[in-house]
């Protein structure tokens, strides 16, 4: 194997922000070969698949991979319930690659609220001086709406005002934040992130993906 191809199946395009996090975790745990990520965009299919199992099968058919990441926000459901949902679908499927669960406690945006320089850069104003009130990292999983928190931070970081402030495409900018984060290690204080990291570490070891 000269490259490791992985596909991320998620609920929406904003979740593509998880790709740099997943690649970082693979690199951190010994994957030195080329890594080729893909996001499974099923929205424009004539008949988008319904149900998690069919979505997983379709993702692998359209985006062949060595490793499948399945993302579900907990959104008020217990972490274990979301995980069991993914595991059950994986057990029912046939000929799927190794599958790893990606389950932020609330929304994936909560994992992007710790790096102030990345937020400023994504907002197009890396040298800005407007004060950004980032939540404490240990509290981000308890935020009722981390997406809106991130959006407001981007608006503030942009330094814009008036109509330009209101029209700032924050949903697009939010997807760029993770591209400017070099080290996701601070997220290891969050149980959901450490669960993801543990599963990736185990999967990499089992399949012998360490090394070039």
What is the CATH T-level topology of the largest domain? Rossmann fold
Low-confidence stretches: none
Spatial gap, N to C terminus: 9 Å
Radius of gyration, taken over Cα atoms and rounded to an integer in Å: 18 Å
Q: Considering DSSP H and I runs of 4 or more, what fraction of the residues is helical?
A: 25-40%
Q: Report the portion of residues in β strands.
A: 5-15%
CATH superfamily of the largest domain: Response regulator
- Report the total helices: 8
What characterizes the major β-sheet? 4 strands, parallel
Return the string of H and E elements: EHEHEHEHHHHH
Query: What's the number of domains?
Result: 2
Q: What is the level-2 CATH architecture name of the largest domain? A: 3-Layer(aba) Sandwich
Q: Which class best fits the helix and strand makeup?
A: alpha/beta
Overall 3D shape? globular
Mean pLDDT: 93
**Strands ordered across the widest β-sheet:** 2-1-3-4
By DSSP, the count of extended strands is: 4
Describe this entry's structure for a reader.
This protein is an alpha/beta fold and 212 residues long. The protein folds into 2 domains: 120 residues, 3-Layer(aba) Sandwich (Rossmann fold); 71 residues, no CATH class. It is 39% helix and 10% strand. The protein has 8 helices and 4 strands, in the order E-H-E-H-E-H-E-H-H-H-H-H. Strands 2-1-3-4 form a 4-stranded parallel sheet, with helices on both faces. Helix 4 crosses helix 5. The longest helix is centred in the last third of the chain and has 16 residues. The N and C termini lie close together (9 Å). The model has no long low-confidence stretch (mean pLDDT 93).
